[in-house]
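[recover] target loaded
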């Protein structure tokens, strides 16, 4: 009887260790919200990031981005700054009222130095100018997500 108890305890310990190991190796797929009104820009970002295993959500404007942010578990936002309905700056301001820690990468083709400064002052984590190259996009996304852990 004593051996049965010891065997059961060892089996339980082994199963718990296996469960812990599985939990450590199972990574949550990161969700990235991309707010971009130009379909070609979005399709490029989608191709690069989905091939790397990220889950993407697409918003056509800042208002849609704000709605998706409120209804989904988002790990990162890539925000175009000039969009119809609600621009990226207004959306960033509203998101920052709710969550100051969520990483946001501003993405724009307009006036690099002034726009970059304004985006960072608005609470963006980083600025990615257009046009963007595959490697630069991946490097920035990986770096920002690593820092936000």
């Amino acid at each position: 009887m004593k051996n049965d108890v010891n065997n059961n305890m060892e089996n339980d310990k082994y199963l718990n260790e296996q469960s812990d190991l599985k939990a450590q190796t199972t990574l949550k797929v990161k969700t990235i919200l991309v707010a971009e009104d130009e379909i070609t820009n979005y399709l490029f970002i989608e191709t690069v990031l989905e091939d790397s295993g990220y889950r993407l959500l697409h918003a056509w404007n800042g208002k849609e981005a704000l709605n998706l942010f409120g209804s989904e578990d988002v790990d990162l936002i890539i925000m175009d700054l000039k969009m119809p309905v609600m621009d990226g700056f207004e959306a960033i301001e509203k998101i920052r009222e709710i969550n100051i820690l969520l990483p946001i990468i501003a993405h724009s083709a307009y006036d690099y130095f002034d726009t970059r400064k304004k985006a960072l002052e608005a609470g963006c984590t980083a600025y990615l100018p257009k046009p963007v190259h595959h490697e630069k996009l991946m490097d920035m996304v990986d770096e920002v997500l690593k820092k936000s852990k």
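[recover] notes: Helices lie at 2-25, 39-50, 62-71, 88-98, 112-122, 134-147.
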